[in-house]
Design brief:
This protein is 42% helix and 24% strand. 37% of the residues are buried. The chain has two domains: 1-79 and 171-259, Rossmann fold, CATH 3.40.50.300; 87-169, P-loop containing nucleotide triphosphate hydrolases (Rossmann fold). It is of the alpha/beta class. The chain has a six-stranded mixed beta sheet with strand order 6-7-8-3-9-10, sandwiched between helices. The protein has a four-stranded antiparallel beta sheet with strand order 2-1-4-5, covered by helices on one side. It binds adenosine-5'-triphosphate. InterPro entries: AAA+_ATPase (IPR003593), ABC_AA/LPS_Transport (IPR051120), ABC_transporter-like_ATP-bd (IPR003439), BCA_ABC_TP_C (IPR032823), P-loop_NTPase (IPR027417). Residues 4-251 form the ABC transporter domain. Keywords: ATP-binding, Nucleotide-binding, Transport. Pfam families: ABC_tran, BCA_ABC_TP_C.
Length: 259
């Protein structure tokens, strides 16, 4: 059964149709890739799914419910969480503190319980830290627990960001170009971590420009260009689809002409 289904979703900015009747469907347990040339509409699709933008047309069905146009906090509360292209951590806070900041979105404690240190608060906060410990283990971050994130390598910061997203206990983790800015070794390590996240029962949807990574990691791909779906299938099919090859070669030619 599909977990997330976009049905003919359209998003327009002024005269630009950033998403044009886009449909695709993500099943539970997928590592699903969205690819396409620059400006194709990939990030706009993610922004519509996570409630940052309200689409003009179409439905975004999450577990049977249309969530198009809902508030981002409500969508996050339903189990859909994302990371952004640019890392957005609290630089002076430690790895563990950054991760627990994501946990507090999930936690049910109130300021009153915190102020008076009630038994519920103590129990809840202990559970939060235990969860952070598990996430740091999963993400290979335990040795950096107390270090401020701003002093860590970019590849580790990326892992912290994903760890913070995991702290909300998502069912769907959306990653916007997770390998951007990472070197080959960091990219390989990230791929292994994404596989581990999937094995822990979380469905993953990602945008990525690193084609080697996409082709090795995902089980299904939707290719978009000028906001429209131009192809869909498994990595083997996509790599040999002439329409996809043309879209990428075409965009390279355009870039060369511009330079
Ligand atoms: N907030 C916005 N206001 C106006 N136009 C926008 C906005 N966001 C995106 N667009 C336009 O929508 C189109 C799709 O942009 P989008 O960022 O979704 O593409 P993308 O596939 O994610 O590109 P990239 O790979 O370069 O990140 C582009 O023409 C872009 O200029």
């Amino acid at each position: 059964m599909s977990l997330l289904e976009l049905k003919s979703v359209t998003k327009v900015f002024g005269g630009v149709v950033a998403m044009d009747k886009l449909s695709f469907s993500v099943n539970e347990g997928d590592i699903y890739g969205i690819i396409g040339p620059n400006g194709a509409g990939k990030t706009t699709a993610f922004n519509c799914i996570t409630g940052i933008y309200k689409p003009e047309e179409g439905e975004i069905i999450w577990k049977g419910e249309n969530i198009a146009g809902m508030h981002p906090c409500d969508i996050a509360g339903k189990g859909i969480v994302r990371t952004f292209q640019n890392i957005r951590l609290f630089g002076k806070m430690s790895v563990a503190e950054n991760i627990i900041s994501g946990r507090h979105q999930k936690s049910k404690q109130t300021w009153f319980q915190g102020l008076f240190s009630t038994p519920f608060y103590k129990k809840d906060e202990k559970e939060n830290w235990l969860k952070v410990k598990d996430i740091m283990k999963l993400m290979g971050l335990s040795e950096y627990a107390t270090i401020p994130t701003q002093s860590l390598a970019y590849g580790i910061q990326r892992r912290v960001e994903i760890g913070r997203a995991l702290a909300t206990e998502p069912e769907l983790l959306i990653l916007d170009e997770p390998a951007a800015g990472l070197n080959e070794k960091e990219t390989f390590e990230l791929m292994e971590l994404i596989k581990r996240i999937k094995d822990s029962g979380i469905t993953v949807l990602l945008i990525e420009h690193d084609m080697d990574m996409v082709m090795q990691l995902v089980n299904k791909i939707t290719v978009i260009n000028f906001g429209k779906k131009i192809s869909e299938g498994d990595p083997e099919y996509i790599q040999s689809d002439p329409v996809v090859i043309e879209a990428y070669l075409g965009s390279e030619d355009d870039e060369e002409e511009e330079n």
